[in-house]
């Protein structure tokens, strides 16, 4: 009978393997002063790293759960490819509101921009990535420059953005889709869902949508939008964001993986023969190998 390994034991085993391979992990680094609960991040770096590109990862969990340790293979495979990998926590609903939650992510990225050189990273070569709720947060940070401006991070420091299977790049459209589906089948509207999570006010739904803030000449970095192919909501949202970015002359690739699920798409990132992993590597490798980028705001 096969032995079942707990997720915590699997993560601990992976971290020990990283240390054995000469990779370092620095956990629970505060990114605010004073740092409140969950205002901490982890840094995974190759031994003796210097000036390496950085992956900044935002976990999912419907903005109400999740943790920076739920990163699967990503730290190891990115370290092996010559990246520093940062995974951040942030305060959650309903303890704080959505604007504060987003502000935490921006503040964490601001800390990374100021301090990652001390941990082997290049502060001007940062990829912002996230899964599910983290995908919405990553896409918003890379399109609505107000959050990173407040944190002292210029868009020119961002090399690329990879949101993974988000369903809220256009929040009003997602709310309308969910509620119309319920009404069509004569079912009650949800008492708690996207409408409430994002503030229960139409203007907030617009303001927290990445598509709202896409425009030419802002310096928005290139995007790779990963999603589960065939899942109607995430597929529509991926295409919607992709079309808006394309219309603004922002380089974008929309990649749908077949025969997978919301969690499996994320968990499989780092498996060599995984199609989404191959798309991810092609995206980041091309941008890291590219010549020094021009100022995209001109």
What do these coordinates show?
This protein has about 300 residues and is α/β, with parallel strands linked by helices. It has one domain: Alpha/Beta hydrolase fold, catalytic domain (Rossmann fold, 3-Layer(aba) Sandwich). The chain is about 40% helix and about 20% strand. It has twelve helices and eight strands. The protein has helices spanning about 5-20, 75-80, 100-115, 135-140, 145-150, 170-185, 195, 200-205, 210-215, 230-245, 260-265, 275-290, and strands at about 25-30, 40-45, 50-60, 85-90, 120-130, 160-165, 225-230, 250-255. It has an eight-stranded mixed beta sheet with strand order 1-2-4-3-5-6-7-8, with helices on both faces. The longest helix is centred in the middle third of the chain and has 18 residues, at about 100-115. The termini are far apart.
Number of self-contained structural domains? 1
For the terminal residues, how far apart are their CA atoms?
63 Å
Largest sheet at a glance?
8 strands, mixed
The mean pLDDT is: 91
Please write the CATH class name. Answer: Alpha Beta
Please bin the fraction of helical residues.
Answer: 40-55%
Number of separate strands = 8
Q: Give the strand order, joined by hyphens, for the main sheet.
A: 1-2-4-3-5-6-7-8
Structural class by secondary-structure content: alpha/beta
CATH topology: Rossmann fold
Task: Please give the radius of gyration in angstroms.
Answer: 19 Å
Name the CATH architecture: 3-Layer(aba) Sandwich
Q: What are the segments in which pLDDT stays under 50 over at least 5 consecutive residues?
A: 1-17, 293-298
**How large a portion of the residues is in β-strands, by DSSP E?**
15-25%
CATH 4th-level superfamily? Alpha/Beta hydrolase fold, catalytic domain
Total of DSSP H or I helical runs spanning 4+ residues: 12
Element order, helices and strands?
HEEEHEHEHHEHHHHEHEHH
Q: Categorize the overall geometry.
A: globular
